[in-house]
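Researcher: I'm preparing a figure for a lab meeting and need a structural model of a single chain. I don't have an experimental structure, so a prediction will have to do for now. The sequence is pasted below. Please return the structure as tokens so I can convert it later.
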Amino acid sequence: MDFSGNHNLTRSELDCLHAEFDRVLASPWCQRALLWRMHANRISQSAYILLRSYNIIPNILKGVAAGLMGQSPTLRSLELAVTYRCNAKCEQCSCRLEMDMERERKEHLTVDEYKSAIDQAREMGAFQFLINGGEPMLGADLVFDLIAYIKKNKQNYVHLCTNGYLLNRERIDQLANLHLDSVEMGLDSAFPEIHDANRMPGSFQKIMECTDLFRRHGILVIYNTVLTNQKVQSDDILLTCQLAAKNGCLLQITPACLTGAYKNRLDLLLTDKTKLYFIWLLSKYWSNRSDLYSSLTNIRCPAAREKIGLQPYGDVVSCPLIQIPYGNIRHTPLREIQAKMLLNPYYHLKETQGCLPSMSETFIREYLLDPHHDCQTTPMRKHQSAEKGR
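Model: Understood. Here is the structure written out token by token.
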């Protein structure tokens, strides 16, 4: 492949980066230093985001104070899936199984039901609302209605997750007028032909065009890419990091999660080397980030404690990447559903590498594999006795 394209990295520069990581791999001291650099990047990156959306600072401070004082978890974020329909067929889609069952599902939530969930989340402390799918812009009117409702309170933060294909200048202007804070677009590769093959023809170029339009409005642009062992071996992840930095965008790196289209794919579990590589990328590039950064007080998985997800039919999950319903918003208040989630001690783990559906093999084997899947080890069931004692 041509290494002189979008990313501006030459083969010799890649060789230097390989040598740098090899030194990290061989030195426990260097590995410990990575963690400090990663924490420093997280703090400075968070400060950068806050300065762009300073109205949310009072809510941030309340959540941090509650966490430092050991109070009960304060909900920070509600992720709203407005549809599971999509115009792409990405191989890594986390809601592929939900999309396949779309026609068998119950009645879709109404606008008023979404607004009720938003109100309940705000009463629980939430100030950040993520709108995703499927492809949310297939329901653009609902997206615009929800953003307008959320931004009635200027201390709320709104983030849109989209593949970008259905966006145009008019729609981006409308999102800007509604005061959208940030947008996240999936970027599967630094090479247009690889990205487009996984999405749809012209998708890569569309993302580049949307990036320019959003940045002209001052909207923070984040790319999202899935980390796999193969992407490390091919250098595609390095080139994607460079491309994001070149375009002035943050890059959300999501380790391959064994859910949706990747369900039962134990062969995709990250190796120890790739897990270290993940930390190295977060420490080396200030523009890189992880969902683990989303915890207010540390680098850890925020699922159930600080963020929860709402599916289009009212089911509530601990994270959109963990498609396990704990209740339905139509029948049970959001606060009670979160309390049920928090009975599970997995959501209280304090690990830097704590992404449950991608890095915790015990969690994956216990909760995400099909019952008939051939497991070679016995899943951990310590949570059962813990729940009985609560």
